[in-house]
Amino acid sequence: MTTTVSPPPAEAPGRRRTRRRTTDRGFNRVFRWIAVGAGVLILAVLAAVALFLLQQAWPALTAGEDELASAVPRFPDDTSLLEYVGPLVFGTLLAAALALAIATPLAMGIALFISHYAPRRLSQLLGYLVDLLAAVPSVIYGLWGIYVLGPAVQPVWAWLNEYVGWFPLFAGPVSPTSRVLATVSVVLAVMILPIITAVAREVFLQTPKLHEEAALALGATRWEVVRTAVLPFGRSGVISAAMLGLGRALGETMAVLMILSPGFLYSFRILDSSQHQTIAAYIAADFPEASGLAVNTLIATGLVLFVITLAVNMAARAIVARRKEFSGAN
Question: pTM of the prediction?
Answer without folding.
Answer: 0.84
